[in-house]
Structures are given as structure tokens and as C-alpha cells.
């Protein structure tokens, strides 16, 4: 399968992902980057720290990618999630897909991101400029 | 009694105070029972535990799953990746 899934402590080289997804049979490549936001509501973030239950996170990402591949006719797909400490503006996740048509590529990226946020065992801790740290565990 | 191991992540690890607990539990304990045992041991874990998912030996399981000797349980609080 034309799939690459990775968890990494290194910065994500998204340009390389785009080139890896380029194929002659695809008419669209969509790249989504999730980046660290400095301000959420009235709260300021100094940095985020991501951790994963890596073996299950990788397995779950593969399942999500495989499901999206068959649903949207994806030609090539790469998903890379960054772990460790990230500062505002840095890329925490990159999803890149190529499909014959753009509607499918956009829809695939959207669905993949929704699924990742719902089920992949990865967590982030926010630290404010005052040094207060909180793990984020959504209530629903 | 059977011996199992439970690994905690993120906010759950902070509450428990350690990454991994070795536990002795009665035979035929389910994941739901284990959750109740953990809440009794660590009352502050309750709100995370009610919304947590559980994996056994790196596979997600339902709460009626029965644990056996040497199972490696992962307590997975609500996720926030992406």
C-alpha cells in the first residue's frame, strides 16, 4: 500500500511528503498542517508537549489511513505526528493525500483529521507563560 | 489472584504519580471492574476514568473484557492529539 505513517520527535518535512504523494494518476494533492496556536480564547500558550502510546497510535493511524484510502480512492497517503515539545507556529501534524479529483482529497483530509482527534492515543499538555501546565482531556 | 500491569498516560499518570502499576487483582476481573478498583485507589482519577478507553496488550478492548494473568493494560484518557 502507498502509505507512510510516522510518529517523530523531529520537525516534520512536509515538502517531502507532498513530493512523495505526487503520482501521474492523481489530479489533486491536499496537504493539511496542524500548527501550534499561541492564543486560544484568552489563554496564551508558551509551548505544547505531545506524548503518545506509540504502538497503538501507529496501529490506529494505519487503520484510519486504510479506511480513508478505500473510501476516497487515495493514491498515496502520508501521516506524520510530532511528539515532544513544540512552540507556537510549529507543525504538530501533517496529513498529505493524493486522489484523482480534488473533492475526494479535501474530504479525505478532513475525515482523517476528525478521526485522529477522536481516537488516536496521543495527548498534549499546554504550558502558559506563567509556567502553569495542563494536560488536555476533552470532555466529549 | 492474578498479576497484571497497568500503564498510565498524560493527566492519568500525573494523578497516579507513576507511569506503571503492577497490581494483584481477583481472577475474572473485567476492565469495568478494574476501572472501579482504580477509582477507589485514586479518587481523583474518576472523571478521566469514566471517559477513558482501555487497551490490553496493545489492542483496544470493551469494558466487559476479562483480564488474565500478565495482561498489560493501558489506561487511555480522552485524547487530544492533532
Characterization of the model:
The complex is a heterodimer of chains A (140) and B (82). Chain A has 140 residues and is α+β, with helices and mostly antiparallel strands. Chain A is 32% helix and 37% strand. Chain A has a single domain, classed as Molybdopterin biosynthesis MoaE subunit (Aldehyde Oxidoreductase, domain 3). In chain A, strand 9 and strand 10 form a beta hairpin. The N and C termini of chain A lie far apart (34 Å). Chain B is an alpha+beta fold and 82 residues long. Chain B is built from 3 helices and 5 strands; from the N terminus they run βαβααβββ. A 5-stranded mixed beta sheet of chain B has the order 2-1-5-3-4. In chain B, strand 3 and strand 4 form a beta hairpin. In chain B, 30% of the residues are buried. Classes of the chains: A alpha+beta (140), B alpha+beta (82). Chains A and B meet through strand 5, helix 2, helix 3 and strand 9 of A and helix 1 of B.
SSE layout and pairing:
The complex is a heterodimer of chains A (140) and B (82).
Chain A: E1 3-8, H1 14-21, E2 28-35, E3 39-40, E4 43-44, E5 47-52, H2 54-72, E6 76-82, E7 84-86, E8 91-99, H3 102-119, E9 122-127, E10 133-135
Parallel strand pairs in A: 1-6
Antiparallel strand pairs in A: 2-8, 3-4, 5-7, 5-9, 6-8, 9-10
Helix pairs in contact in A: 2-3
Chain B: E1 2-8, H1 10-16, E2 20-25, H2 31-41, H3 46-50, E3 53-56, E4 59-61, E5 72-76
Parallel strand pairs in B: 1-5
Antiparallel strand pairs in B: 1-2, 3-4, 3-5
In short:
The complex is a heterodimer of chains A (140) and B (82). Chain A is an alpha+beta fold and 140 residues long.
Q: Which structural class do the helices and strands of chain A define? A: alpha+beta
How much of the residues of chain A is beta strand, in percent?
Answer: 35-45%
| Main sheet characteristics of chain A | 4 strands, mixed
How helix-rich are the residues of chain B, as a percent range?
A: 25-40%
Regions of chain A with pLDDT < 50 over 5+ consecutive residues? none
Give the spatial strand order of the biggest sheet of chain B.
2-1-5-3-4
Number of helices in the DSSP assignment of chain B: 3
What about the largest sheet of chain B? 5 strands, mixed
List low-pLDDT spans of chain B. none
Task: Provide the CATH topology of chain B.
Answer: Ubiquitin-like (UB roll)
Work out the oligomeric state of the chains in this entry: heterodimer
Q: What overall form of chain B do the CA principal axes indicate? A: globular
- Report the count of strand segments of chain B: 5
Structural class of chain B: alpha+beta
Nearest-integer average pLDDT of chain B: 98
**Intertermini distance of chain B:** 40 Å
Which sequence of SSEs, written as H and E, runs from N to C of chain A?
EHEEEEHEEEHEE
Work out the number of β strands of chain A.
Answer: 10
Amino acid at each position: 500500500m502507498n502509505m507512510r505513517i510516522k510518529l517523530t520527535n523531529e520537525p516534520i518535512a512536509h515538502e517531502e511528503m507532498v513530493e512523495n504523494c505526487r503520482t501521474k494518476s492523481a489530479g489533486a494533492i491536499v496537504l493539511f498542517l496542524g500548527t501550534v496556536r499561541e492564543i486560544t480564547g484568552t489563554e496564551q500558550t508558551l509551548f505544547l508537549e505531545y506524548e503518545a502510546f506509540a504502538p497503538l497510535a501507529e496501529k490506529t493511524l494505519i487503520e484510519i489511513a486504510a479506511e480513508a484510502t478505500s473510501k476516497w480512492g487515495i493514491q498515496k497517503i502520508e501521516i506524520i505526528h510530532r511528539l515532544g515539545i513544540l512552540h507556537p507556529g510549529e507543525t504538530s501534524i501533517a496529513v498529505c493525500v493524493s486522489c484523482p479529483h480534488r473533492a475526494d482529497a479535501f474530504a479525505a483530509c478532513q475525515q482523517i483529521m476528525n478521526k485522529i482527534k477522536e481516537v488516536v492515543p496521543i495527548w498534549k499538555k499546554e504550558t502558559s507563560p506563567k509556567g502553569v501546565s495542563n494536560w488536555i482531556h476533552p470532555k466529549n | 489472584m492474578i498479576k497484571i500491569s497497568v500503564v498510565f498516560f498524560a493527566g492519568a499518570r500525573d494523578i497516579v504519580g507513576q507511569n506503571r502499576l503492577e497490581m494483584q487483582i481477583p481472577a475474572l476481573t473485567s476492565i469495568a471492574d478494574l476501572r472501579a478498583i482504580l477509582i477507589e485507589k485514586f479518587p481523583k482519577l474518576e472523571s478521566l476514568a469514566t471517559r477513558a478507553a482501555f487497551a490490553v496488550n496493545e489492542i483496544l478492548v470493551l469494558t466487559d473484557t476479562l483480564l488474565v494473568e500478565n495482561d498489560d493494560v493501558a489506561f487511555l484518557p480522552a485524547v487530544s492529539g492533532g
